[in-house]
Amino acid sequence: MEHQIQPIKKTRVSEQVFKQLYDMIRDGTYSPGDQLPNERVLAEQFQVSRASIREALRTLQTMGLIESQVGVSGGNFVKALDIKTVISPFADFLHNGQKTLQDIMEYRVVLETEIARIAAVRRNSYDLERIRESLQAMKKNVEEGGIGLQEDNTFHEDIARATHNEVFIQMLTLARTLLSRTRETTLNIKGVPQTGIRHHGRILKALESGDADRAANAMRLHLIEAQKNVERQ
């Protein structure tokens, strides 16, 4: 039976959009070579914002499930891959509610601390500008009453890009949905978004200084605080 799109009603909107589209690709609703509806149509079908649709499509593209083509006949097309053997185990894990957030936080502390250390040495002026813009976007969102979740995600991904190591970049991007879950858990605690902005400011200053140890320490302290918040939750 053909998979039917269901309106999104819960939190983590982009994650739920991703999950439905992912399932539709796996069950053959969309086959290799098929073009997905455009952002406007998907937003109407899912009854969500186009920003949430773009986020879900970006995850699908990063995981190699779809490819984007430009031009008059452009759009997002399903790629011809063995999805079950290449993507399925990890993608299913991303949405496994039984996986503890504590384990994910341990992963973040180990990986992102060293990413910050390397980024402090390899970053260039363009990298720093992107990181600054992500921090400013988070400040703006929080001032407007949000929790800055997407901007927080982008801040950490921009630091990974500053390493100029494709493995770091792809690993962090591929696990975006999973890592975003820990950030959402902590950012929903009163006062944490504001604290996170201060922590991010210290990380940025350390990256600007080019001091690898200082950057690693700033990131580690930030993540350990987040880890404590997850445990309290």
Number of helices: 12
Whole-number tally of structural domains = 2
Taking the sheet with the most strands, its summary is: 2 strands, antiparallel
CATH class of the largest domain: Mainly Alpha
Helix content: 55-70%
Calculate the terminal CA-CA distance, rounded to whole Å.
40 Å
Proportion of strand residues: under 5%
Assign an overall shape: globular
Q: Give the second-level CATH assignment, the architecture of the largest domain.
A: Up-down Bundle
- C-alpha-based Rg, rounded: 18 Å
Whole-number mean pLDDT:
85
The count of strands amounts to 2
Which structural class matches the secondary elements? Answer: mainly alpha
CATH topology of the largest domain: Four Helix Bundle (Hemerythrin (Met), subunit A)
Question: How do the strands of the widest beta sheet line up side by side?
Answer: 1-2
Q: What are the secondary-structure elements, in order, as H or E? A: HHHEEHHHHHHHHH
CATH level 4 superfamily of the largest domain: GntR ligand-binding domain-like
Low confidence ranges: 83-89
Key structural traits:
233 residues, mainly alpha, Arc Repressor Mutant, subunit A, Four Helix Bundle (Hemerythrin (Met), subunit A), 2 strands, 69% helix, globular
Structure report:
The chain has helices at residues 13-26, 39-46, 50-62, 83-86, 88-94, 101-122, 125-143, 149-161, 166-174, 176-187, 192-209, 212-232, and strands at 66-69, 75-78. It has 233 residues and is mainly α. It folds into two domains: 13-90, Winged helix-like DNA-binding domain superfamily/Winged helix DNA-binding domain (Arc Repressor Mutant, subunit A), CATH 1.10.10; 97-232, Four Helix Bundle (Hemerythrin (Met), subunit A) (Up-down Bundle), CATH 1.20.120. Strand 1 and strand 2 form a beta hairpin. Mean pLDDT is 85; it is low at 83-89.
